[in-house]
Every structure is written in C-alpha cells, then in structure tokens.
Amino acid sequence: MDLDTFVEKHSELLELERNEEVEQNAKTQERFTLKELESKGLVITRVALDSCYTGLYGRRICKFRAWKRGALLPVNKFSSGDIAGVVLATDAAREVIVSGVVTSITQAVISVAVDNGSDDSLCSDDGRPFHIFKLANDVTYRRLKKTLEKMRKDREIRFSPLIDLFFGVTKPSEVVLAQSPTPEKDFKYFNEKLDASQKEAVKFALNQKEVCIIHGPPGTGKTTTVVEVILHLVRNGSMVLACAPSNIAVDNLVEKLVSYEGTVKVVRLGHPARVLPEIQRHSLDAVLARSDDYSIREDIRKELDAILSSAKKNTSKDSWREVGKRRRDLQKELHQRERKSIERTLRNADIVLSTLTVASDEGPLHCLPQDYFDVAVVDECSQALEAACWMALLRAPKCILAGDHHQLPPTIVSKSAADGGLSLTLMERLLGLHGSSIMKMLTVQYRMHADIMRWSSEQLYEGKLVAHDSVAQHLLRDMPGVEDNETTSTPLLLIDTAGCSMYELDTADEDSKGNEGEADLVSIHVENLIASGIKAADIAVVSAYNLQVELLRLRLASKHHDLEIRSVDGFQGREKEAVVMSFVRSNTEGVVGFLAEERRINVAITRARRHLAVVCDSTTVSRHPFMKSLIDYLTSNGVVQCAKQYSADLDLREPLRPVDLKLNEKGVKTKQQKGDTVRKQKTKPVVGTVPTSGQAFRSKLQIECEAGPQKVDRDEWIREAVENFSASTKSEHRFPSTLNSYERRLVHEVAEKFGLHHVSEGEGVERHIVLRKGKLDATIGDQVQLSPPRAEGSASPEGARNGVGPMRTSTDLTSSNHISHEDAKEQQAESSETESKTEHAEELEVEPTTRKEKAGKQNKVSSTKKQTKQNEPEEEDFDALIASIVAADSTCAQPQCRESIRTALLGRGGPCPLCNRGFCFSHALPEVHGCGEAAKAHARAAWKKTEGGARAPPRPMKADKRAQVKKALDKKLEALAEKRRVKGKKE
C-alpha cells in the first residue's frame, strides 16, 4: 500500500468511526432516560458550579461539584480529555449551553476547560443545577485527519526516510552489531540489573538507523528497557520526543526517567491535573510557574478572572463591548508571553514527553521547528491507531516502537472501520512488512509465578517466556503477615459453576452482561483472601463486562475501599499480587462474546503476580477453542473447586443489583436439562436489594451440582433448619432476608411447633426472621395465632384474602392496632403474595417424590380443615367480637395507652394520615407515635412539589422592557397619590 492509498483509506475509515461514534451517542441520548444514562456513566446529574479560573493559554476552567456539598459524584465513565457538554438541569430539551474538554476528574470534582467565547454567564455559582453529558470526541478525530494530510505534504516538502520505509519504498538499513560505534567492553548501562535480552534490545535500538521494535510481553520490563534506550540517546546528544497513547503510560516513563534526574532534564506536556501527583513538578505548567516572567503572566490571569467575575454586573451593551475587547487584548498578550516561555522551556529539556494526541501541531510542540527532534519513541505502540503514531513520527528521522501486539488493541466503535483495517496497528503492519529484522523480543518476565505465565507463553509467545528466579515460585503465603493455608498456597484456582444454575442475566442492554452467582462467589473468595492477611490494595477483581463490574462493586467496594474492581480494558499495564477473574458468560448457546478476543483474555490472565482465581461456567466458555485451552490448563495445573463448596457462604448473601438494571422477560438465560426441575424466573421491580436469578442456589433450594435431577424442596429445608437449631446448643439462628412470604410463614409455623421464639427484625428489604430459644411468653402466644401448614393449592381464594388460620379474638384485634408501620407493610406484602397462590405453585414446582408423601400432604389438608372448623368462634360470641372492634377503634393506638380518642379525632379531623390509626392528644403527633420518618418524607415531597429544589434565578429584565414597566409603575403611583390629595381636600 502506497502513501496516497493509505491516507485516502484511513481518512474514510476515520470518517466511519467518527460517524458511528456520533450516531451511537445520539441514539443513546434519545433512547435512554436521564437516570439510565447516569447508570451507564454517560452523564453526571445535578452538579453545581464550584468555581472558575483561568488556565494555560487563557483557557477558562469551570470546576463542578456534586449538588449536595461534600457528596461524591456518581460513578461515571468520564476521563481526562473527554468532550463534555454542560446542560441546565431545568432544560427538558437538554440543550448544551457550554462545551469543553475534561481536564481532570476526581470522586468529588470534575473540571472542564470550556471553549473561548462560550456563555459568559457561567462564571460563578449562581445556584443553578447542571447536568454534564459525555459527548463524542471531536478533538482527536480532527487532529488525526490533519496528521494524515500532513503526511502527504511532508513528502512533497522534504524527504522523510520513515514514510518511504514504512510504505515499502525502501528497506531498513542493515547494521552489524560487531561494527557498533561503541565496543561491548566500553558500553556502560545506566541500569546494571538488565537481563541479557534487555541488553541486547538496548544495543539493537541504538544501532538501528531508522526503526526498531521492542516486543515486550507482560512483565518483561519493556518500559525499563525503553528508559535505558532513551538515556543512552540523550548521552549521545540526541533530542528525544517520547510518547504513548495514554496518560498513565507517559507517567510511567516520566517516573522512571526522573530517578536519573542528575543525568537528564525532562518536561511532561499536558494538563497538570492529568499527571500523577509525584511527577507534577515536571509538567510544563509547573516548569513555567518557576520561570522568570511567571509573575507577569499571573497578573494577566488575575485580571482576566476579575473581568469574568464582574461580567454579570454589567448590563449595558457598551459595557459588554468594552469588557469583551479588554478580555481579548489580555488573552492575546498572555498567549504571546506563554508561547515564548514554552519555547524556551522545551529547548532547555533533553526529553519531551506527552500523549500522542498532545504531540500534534495544535499542542505546545507548535512552538518548535518541525525537525527539532532526532528520535521519536512511542511506548505501548500496539494500543494506538497508526494515524495517531504518525503525530510523533513526523517530527523525527528515527523512531523506536515498543509494545505487545498480543495485548489489547485500540478501542474502535465502528465494526465497519475495524474490518476495513483501522484496527491494524503500526506495529503489526511493520512486522508483516519487514519481519523480525527490525524487532527484538524480551524473554524474561519479572511478574508472574511460573504456572500463571506458562499458558500465555505457550499459546501466544511460542513458549519463549521464562520466569525469573525471583518470581518463578513466589506465592501469597510468602508475603509478610499472610497465613499459610490452602488459598495462599495456590497459584491457580478455578471455581467452576457448571451445573449449578448460575446463569448470566438476560439484560435489555445486549452490550453488557452480568452474572450474580459469579459476583457472589468472587466476593466470597476476595473476603477469604483478606481474612488470610492479604491487603485489599494487593487484590484486583477483573471482568470483561461493565455490568459485572457494577455488580462486584455493589458487593465489595463499600467494605474494602482499597480494592480495585475494573474491566479488563481499564486494567491493561497494571499488576496485582492476587487477581480474581469473573468470565460471566453462562448460557445454553455457548456464546462467549468479548471472551472470544484472545488479546483481552491474555491481558486479564497476565495481571496476576502470585495468585490467579478464575470463576466461570466451564461448559459455556469451553465452546471457544482458545478459552478451552485455558480451562484445560487450569484443570491440569491448578486447584479446581465446584461452586457447591461455597453453598454455606452463599446462603447468607444479600443479592444486590443496580437500581436501574432492566431485564428481559425471562430474567436469566437458563438451560433445561432432561429430568431437571429449574425454578422459573420472574422479573420484578428492582429497588436496592432484590431476589435474583441465583437465589434458588443461595437459599439452598437448589444445591445439586452433579448431573441429574435438581430437587427443590423448600418445605423440607426450612423444617430441617428449624429442627437442627432446636436440637443444637446455639441460642440464636437467623434466616436470610431473601425468603419470600410463603417461606417466612412456614418458618413461623414450624418454630411455633418447636416452642421457639420467632420474630422479624430489620426494615424493608433487610427484614429477616430470627429464632431464639426459651419459653414463649404467654401473652405473645395468645396474641399471635399462627395458621397450620397447608398443602400447595389447598387454600381457597377467600382464605387467601383473609389470611389462613383461625379468626382473631378481641385480644388479637387490640394487638393488631399496635402493629408497627414496618410490620403493617410486611403483612400487606405477605397478603398479596398469598393472594397469588397459583403463581407460587408454578414457581415452587414442588412435587412429592413418593405416593407416601402425597398421602401425607392429603392428610395435612384434611387436618387443616378440621382444625379451622374447631377454631371458628361460636355464633353467640359474635356480639362480643363486634364490641371489641368498636372498643379498639375508640381507644388510643399507642401501646400502654387506654385514653379515649373520640374527642381527639374530632379536634384533629380524623386519624393519622400516614398510618391511618387513631391517637389521643398526647400521642397525636407523627414523631411521637412512630411515623416521624414517614412525616419527614411526606413534608419533603410536598415542599419539593410546591417550592422546593433549586431554581434558576429570574433572568435580568431587558432595558426597554424595564423602562416600560417603570413607566407604568410611576403612572400608577401618581394616580394613587392624586386620589389621596383629592380625598384630603374633601375632608
């Protein structure tokens, strides 16, 4: 492919990518509600403008915080360099009033460099709430297009050896190492600890005349080798431009280079907020702040800030024109002074470092001549688009590329663009064009245990990788303060969920997948690791799917703040002592989705140093050949556990989901095997903690992991649990809050038979049953009449509505008036659950396995009917029952209070509107009788509906309109004054 063909083709592919990104962004904005966009991380809702200030080149930086002062921003996908649009929260049309580039983002604050000439009213906190939307990145696309055009022009203006070499016009120059300008015995390395393959790569890179590729598999010290090469280049008198596609990769280079501070002078381009704190002093802004003319530039900035802050006070057009002219003059002066300072700073440095995008002509490098640098170094070259690499390569006659084309490629949105060749990186293309003649591979890795390394070495690196002696056999137990147990002594662990009914969620969003069963298993294993003495900061939890990352964060982030939970794409280039992987996919079709990308799996596996745990459904993921090789390797070389072994821990897990998660009708993708009885799933409204697709497993309702029928018998399990507790020495037993209303009722019934205390504790979705031993209180026994157990489908509709069991006595009715607000909610929920008896019968699918069980259930039905008849009140007691009801309605509902409430009801206009119960004057206030929280919520809602929430202040009235209003007001005042004068004369 020649240069002209390359430029035309890549321009078209970039156009496809850009259009796809814009189209997807527009569809997302239209398709989803604001809340759904927030859950996807594409918008930060309800933020307040915290402050504004002037940055480099006179840019206006707006800093936004959460609306509630001191609160954190919601989880989002914003990062430095993204394009953000600011929208008024009160604008239903979502019209962007200001757009700009995200310069920095923390958990509490996001800063946006807004475009010059944008809305000047956005200069101080005026009480308006805003939303910040993530927009399609126009800056990168524009710079890539300009770079492609520049490649054509450069060839016409001046000779470029790299362009001819990279497009097959010429071949790389042959260099014989024996004829190296520096003899081996006189060659001194800055880092004497380099291994043989690293030293060979350094010599090779220095001797190559045009291009050198350093292939660095995971953990082989690629960046260390690149730094060594850069130091030698500087010592030989070369000016070096070092770039990488991401900020973190550039910072890694800077961090290693500054350790040789006496040897080289470095400058890091880019906003200081994007730079790691420990190397910020080497950023361009920090170096400029130490320059001689800094005070003059700072005075100009202060004057610009003063103009911005006072802009709102000026209302006349003449004032606005004058302010605008003064502002433009100051910005021009500031720009000229900063340009001179930047050029002086860059010329004073030995090495200039930046991301590839910043290396374009629109960045600070435009202050230097085009041929200023001697060598361009691109680290992590395999993660960048080829057009992005040319931003740096066009500035030097020689280049050194470093990376690993077996790890993640650049992210491309458009499938058409990827298939057309946009996903082909420069490193891959050069290796295909010139082969190994321009490449040296590093072969000794310093990260992974030998067992963790061996699979990727055999599959992707031709078995050439060797583990260094310092890491070959290291384990978690060798770390200080860590216990020596089975978990810490295992480098490889596979937790297999095959056959355990832990299926992936069938979400409405096909792009993201989640698996709650795997999320619970991962959280259990992480807690086991931490309990063994491993610090949370030394553990990483990784998944290929963003939804799974959310599920894992819900379970672990609040408990372990230092624990890193990330997607595979967000963890490239990182490492941890222990890595726990969740593969998510579990379905009958054998679809593995993202897992089919070999490079993604390679990155995930090679992040671990001492311990790698993989949680997956081996049956599903083994449908893909590459994944099957990994499962086979883990099975042969690691410890394999069935998910069944964790059933005791899963029993008490609280199933958590994102509030806005939407499922399809089926809820989960299940597989129905012959003879299996699988519980049917039903999608329910999700609020915080909800029953999940894996709840049958967690509640011990499905425990069979082996092939064959899976029995679901919740009645037996509950009876067995209560009986075992009654026979044990324990004083207390807690059932999980995930029991449904039928299961809770059954627990109460069985506990009553065994003479145990049985109470419900907790609120809302955390409400659960607690059993305690001891003699039952007689009063409680009289007040709470539990219904006898009934067989499935035996209760009549009338019985289901009125509650199964005997009719209550007068004591019961008085007691029922004292039920707490939460108990009333629970009883109402249980009543509605009982009403849908047929639906429960389908869900439970409880089948008696023998005729004897059938006969036993029929006997229970008949005995239930007899008992109900015996407990029915006689006809002559009906008057007493009515009297007790009337007495209860006329007595204060507060426990221990027997005051009459007739007068109080007349005085207050009726019972409490929140709980619909009557109280005397002493207990009438909601805060007194227990409805305080409900009253607070009701008052807050009413306030928000009428006048609550922040509102945009009224816009200033235009001058002509103000004059009209003033004239009308003066006329009215004059008329009123005239009336008073006339009235005074008459008197």
Overview of the molecule:
Residues 667-679, 819-856 have a biased composition (Basic and acidic residues). One of its GO terms (cellular component) is nucleus. It is found in: Cytoplasm; Nucleus. The structure is a single chain. It contains 34 helices and 26 strands. With 987 residues, it is an alpha/beta fold. Helix 3 crosses helix 11 (386-393), helix 5 (196-207) packs across helix 6 and helix 26 (810-816) packs parallel to helix 30. It is flat. The model is unreliable at 669-712 and 775-876 (pLDDT under 50).
Shape: flat
> What class, by secondary structure content?
alpha/beta
Q: Tally of extended strands?
A: 26
The biggest beta sheet is recorded as: 7 strands, parallel
Provide the CATH architecture of one domain. 3-Layer(aba) Sandwich
Q: What is the CATH C level class of one domain, in words?
A: Alpha Beta
Side-by-side strand order of the widest sheet? 9-10-8-11-12-7-13
The CATH H-level superfamily of one domain is P-loop containing nucleotide triphosphate hydrolases
Percentage of residues in strands: 5-15%
Assembly state (oligomeric): single chain
CATH topology term of one domain: Rossmann fold
